[in-house]
């Protein structure tokens, strides 16, 4: 450690690593690939409908995770409170959907 890595009071400086565009480009390409797979599954026509719906749901979940992680920076430190609030919102929304389906088919 050199002397320029220390603050005025002698404590070690913590440098913020800047994220390069490489990870964003990879995330963008992965998002495009997921979108193309979803379009191809729907455009194929001869694919089982249940399989297509499940595939689209999986692609949507992966897209959401990529969007939150790389574009909304939820993978970085200090974002636990927004993540907890979003998880709580997904939980409440899931309960509402389950309750609505149960109510309709009961």
TrEMBL record:
Any Pfam family = COX4_pro
Membrane-spanning residues = 25-44, 50-71, 83-105
Q: Which InterPro entries match?
A: Cyt_c_oxidase_su4_prok, Cytochrome_c_oxidase_bac_sub4
Chief subcellular location equals membrane
Q: Which GO terms describe its cellular component?
A: cytochrome o ubiquinol oxidase complex; plasma membrane
Keyword Membrane attached: yes
**Membrane topology annotation:** Multi-pass membrane protein
**Gene Ontology terms for molecular function:** cytochrome bo3 ubiquinol oxidase activity; proton transmembrane transporter activity
Task: Give its localization.
Answer: Cell membrane
Keywords, A to Z, come to: Cell membrane, Membrane, Transmembrane, Transmembrane helix
Q: Work out whether the entry's keyword set contains Transmembrane.
A: yes
Q: Which GO terms describe its biological process?
A: aerobic electron transport chain; electron transport coupled proton transport
Member of which family?
Belongs to the cytochrome c oxidase bacterial subunit 4 family.
Query: What is the protein named?
Result: Cytochrome C oxidase subunit IV
Q: Which organism is it from?
A: Paenibacillus apis
């Amino acid at each position: 450690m050199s002397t320029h890595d220390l603050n005025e009071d002698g404590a070690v400086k913590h440098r913020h690593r800047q994220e390069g565009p490489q990870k964003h480009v990879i995330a963008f390409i992965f998002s495009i690939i997921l979108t193309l797979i979803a379009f191809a599954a729907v455009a194929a026509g001869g694919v089982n409908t249940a399989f297509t719906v499940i595939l689209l749901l999986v692609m949507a979940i992966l897209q959401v995770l990529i969007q939150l992680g790389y574009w909304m920076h939820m993978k970085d430190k200090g974002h636990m409170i927004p993540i907890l609030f979003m998880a709580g919102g997904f939980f409440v929304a899931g309960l509402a959907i389950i309750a609505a389906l149960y109510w309709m088919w009961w």
